[in-house]
Specification:
The protein is mostly beta strands. Helices cover 1% and strands 44% of the residues.
Length: 286
Amino acid sequence: MYIFIWVNQPNFCLIPPPTFQNQVFKYKTSNSNIAEVSPQGIVTAKGTGDATITVYVKEASVKTTIHVPKETLLDTKEATCSQEGTHIYQCSECGKKRSEIIPKNIINGHDYIKTIIKPTSKKAGYTEYVCKHNSSHMYRDSYVPATGEDTEHIHLWDDGILIKKPTATENGEKQYTCLICGQKETQVIDKIASNYSILTNKKVYTFGENISVCAAGAKNSRIGLYKIEDNASKVQPIYQYYITDQDIISGEYYEIQKVGKLHPSRIPASSLPAGDYKVILYSDDD
């Protein structure tokens, strides 16, 4: 008989091989001050050192020694917005080392380089911040009007506010505001075609913001959210939902993270890290 040992401190799990799955096992620890074992074979670290776990099945038994390390943090490489970090630990008793991955820090891991763009007679100035780890992570603020007598400028529009949602029978409206002079402009959004169409309420989203999708199609049409580089014929969508004509109605806006189902294979992308994405509408025949 043999035993697989999976270690994930502070818990260990003793898993019997497939040929023994229907047998009754009993477990015993040599030192409960170092490690306790439950009737299900879950070993919980209580101290540091070595403990022997004995597994009994019928008349047979097997032992395995578990070492609970007394660890000291040797070194840390902090995570950034584009790279994972690492903790390095070493056991002061046996000398063995292990590493622990620190996930990418999308929210607070930016290291911005600040550049001040001075205004000219016709163009406004601003301060630009670009992350040195990933230049696609940037933003601007502190806008300064043009300095000359001719204060005309190229408008720098915001992401806009949806004033009226388009439907299959009526146009919608979206209002934009210039970040420099405050001028507002209203744009007409064409009404949704009666057959198949899809659009989002805006083009640029901040991290953690819900994506609102309006899809027009027949009952059982499927809407999927993918990374821009995904081959939709080979990978599952991150989130998807269906038009049901009951709780999900064709031509209405829905936040895809709320009404959509997350596919298990896309869990690492569920938080929608910074990047480009696409939404695809499939007819019920696709």
